[in-house]
Amino acid sequence: MKVVIVGFGLGGLGSARHIADQAPDAKVTIVGDERPYVRHKLRLVTQGMNLWVNTKHIESKGVEIILDRVTRVRREQKEVVLASGQTLQYDYLVLATGSNPTIPSKLKGGEKCAVFRKLEDVHKLIDEKPNEVAIIGASFVALHVADASRAIGAKPKVIVRSRLIRRSLEPELSAKLEKFLAEKGVEFIHGKPKEVYDGKLELEDGSEVPSEMTFMATGVSPEIALAKEAGLELMNEWVIKTDRQGRTSDSNIFAVGDNATVIDTLINKPIYMGIGTAASIMSLNVAKALTGFKASYKVPRYQRDVFFGGIHIASAGLTSIEASKEGFEADRVYMSGDEWGDHAYIVYDKKTKRVIGFSSISKKDIGWKSIGVLMAMIRRWPLAKLGFEI
Ligand SMILES: Cc1cc2nc3c(=O)[nH]c(=O)nc-3n(C[C@H](O)[C@H](O)[C@H](O)COP(=O)(O)OP(=O)(O)OC[C@H]3O[C@@H](n4cnc5c(N)ncnc54)[C@H](O)[C@@H]3O)c2cc1C
Predict the structure, then answer these.
(1) Are residues 281 and 197 in the same domain?
(2) Residue where a domain terminates, one of 165, 189, 216
(3) How many Cα atoms within 13 Å fall on the side-chain side of residue 232?
């Protein structure tokens, strides 16, 4: 069995490793336009951290690595074409092409913005050494840019339209996080950007934010060029649609990671997650599918992070707001105390009493506790099983 993987990020590397381990007879080739590194730790390059991932394991298992770009998928011939002109035949193709930062087309001067996705992006920040950095967006990535900016001695100013990390945190936690980060030297400006100029950013209310470097961190768009050209089914013309195992509308082609949908454990329908934890499980599912396994591991939304060396964030499943949008009768339990850290909320469905979400911020890491709630969610446990009476 010949397997070609396109993209050498977390999803591609994970697929190569799992397929090589679980289907040792497969001839695996991975084609990537950059060598793998730990993308979610980009900000730590400002502190001298080396992010390159060692590929000895997959190489020792016979995986061939080609540093090039795939320019075309020819489904009828079951081959991919590389920028060098070389073609590679496959029995199975895994698209792990990731995503790219989105620059809203309506924002004037948006093309002047820097982004934070690749190694060269963090090196640009280090090399330009700005004194003031404006960051448009309130996502995890926006806060990573703020963290990296502060690490190089710049003043980060985060332009927030709604609230911090709103898809992962309960509203009260967004407010507490903002207060904590403000104490650490991040300036938060609430408003909507209107135009980006050299040296400043103008907001819709007419105010101006001086900025030597302006970053856009409002989200990503899946890299679907190859899939689109090859005629694979997309969801909303935006992301590659896959089944539980990662199979696309062509049963010989899989898609994993930031370019594809996953079936959400809680709402049981395809959604876009775009997070590394999902990419890792998706790559395991592809390897399992190629070895004839019919089932798949569940892919829950789970994120954990620590900002400014002192504030730990964990989130799993849905916030109460997202849960209500999905039709749950969402309610919450608030916890504060040793094992739950400073502030934590569990979200549950009032009808079934099932645990459907969790978010916390704390000065101490409550990682294992958050994984406990995650497991409860995956196992469809009622809240009572976590020791809460409601
Ligand atoms: C700053 C930052 C912080 C993050 N923090 C977290 C976090 O705390 N937790 C979390 O779960 N997730 C986090 N993420 C998201 C996480 O990094 C991504 O979900 C993950 O990297 C997705 O892996 P991927 O393999 O799908 O895509 P990528 O890592 O983007 O890899 C795709 C690779 O494919 C290459 N490629 C694309 N097209 C082609 C082609 N045609 N030919 C050859 N190569 C191609 C790309 O250049 C890239 O190298 C963070 C992301 C960033 C940027």
Answers:
(1) no
(2) 216
(3) 34
Same domain, 35 and 67: yes
What residue numbers bound the domain in which 348 lies?
311-386
Point out the ligand 1 atom lying closest to the alpha carbon of residue 13.
25
Point out the domain boundary residue: 216, 235, 251.
Answer: 216
Do 373 and 320 share a structural domain?
A: yes
Pocket of ligand 1 (CB under 6 A): 6-12, 31-34, 39-40, 42, 69-70, 96-99, 116-117, 140-141, 144, 223, 226, 257-258, 274-277, 279, 303, 305
- 284 lies in a domain? yes
Question: What CATH number does the domain containing 285 carry?
Answer: 3.50.50.60
CA of 305 to the centre of ligand 1 (A): 16
Q: What is the torsional sign of CA 132, 276, 321, 312?
A: negative
| Token pair for 376 | 């409860």
Q: What is the chain's pLDDT, residue by residue, as a tens digit (390 residues)?
A: 999 999 999 999 999 999 999 999 999 999 999 999 999 999 999 999 999 999 999 999 999 999 999 999 999 999 999 999 999 999 999 999 999 999 988 899 999 999 999 999 999 999 999 999 999 999 999 999 999 999 999 999 999 999 999 999 999 999 999 999 999 999 999 999 999 999 999 999 999 999 999 999 999 999 999 999 999 999 999 999 999 999 999 999 999 999 999 999 899 999 999 999 999 999 999 999 999 999 999 998 999 999 887 899 999 999 999 999 999 999 999 999 989 999 999 999 999 999 999 999 999 999 889 999 999 999 999 999 998 887
Buried b (16+ CB within 10 A) or exposed e, 31-66: bbeeebbbbbebbbbbeeeeeeeebeebeeeebebb
Same domain, 193 and 225: no
State the distance from the centre of ligand 1 to the C-alpha of 82, rounded, in angstroms. 20
Using the mean position of ligand 1's atoms as its centre, give its distance from the Cα of residue 202 in Å.
30
